[in-house]
Design goal:
With 268 residues, the chain is mainly α. The protein is 58% helix and 0% strand. It has a domain of 107 residues. Helix 11 runs parallel beside helix 13, helix 13 runs parallel beside helix 15 and helix 15 runs parallel beside helix 17.
Amino acid sequence: MNGERTMILEMLSAGKITIEQANQLIDALGEKPRSAAEEWPDQGQRFERMEPVQEYRERQQAPGRTRFTFDQIIELSEHEVDPAYLKGLREAGLTDLTVEHIIELSEHEVEPSYLITLRQAGLTDLTIDQIIELSEHEVDPTYLLKFREGGIFDLSIDQLIELSEHEIKPVYAIKVRQAGLTDLTFDKIIELSEHDVKPSYITQLREAGLSDLTVDQFIELSEHDIKPGYIKALSEAGLTHLTFEEVIELSEREVDPAYLKALREVSH
């Protein structure tokens, strides 16, 4: 009888776990469970042949990838970590977690399947606290992955959660940056998205010569449905010193840039 089975038998004898839980623990350790009727002794029976607990503790080396020390099994039991949860972690190949991490993940109800998805997405550099926070806010791991694939690596977990909660698609944030607005805060990106300012609109306005607009001005032009082509036509007509408000007023009054150009030619 190996050390792990000895520990589990002792816990069963002390009434700390049920026969079903004992079998689950054995299974979680990667061994064949015993039959409740034929293999497990009665819970009230003393186990005279067991090695002393202290002797086992003293000789037990650092646990392997799926093995626990006596103290660790006690700790898992005291924190009510379901053996089925351990089994799920083992079956997922997540055998490199510390007992403390397992307990923390269990207490925050982070499912093994969520951890698998994180790892499959290549997100192996996250801390346990970050994983828990992402899980609690139901952030899909592939959401973060898409930002990274788009060249955005400077996201904090809080920013990622905020973007996710506002349903900002990664491609939107990526295209806003590609439009030249590389120094925007993520609050500003959220604001642009909520006002339905398309990245292509930003690009066209900048190509029309409006490269120094603020986020509020982009939003105002979009809400007034000012076409980038209209601004470009005004510029080609020689009206390069119009104020922001004058451009909006000319557009709303449907003043044709060609008409303005003709007036300028007459005045000259």
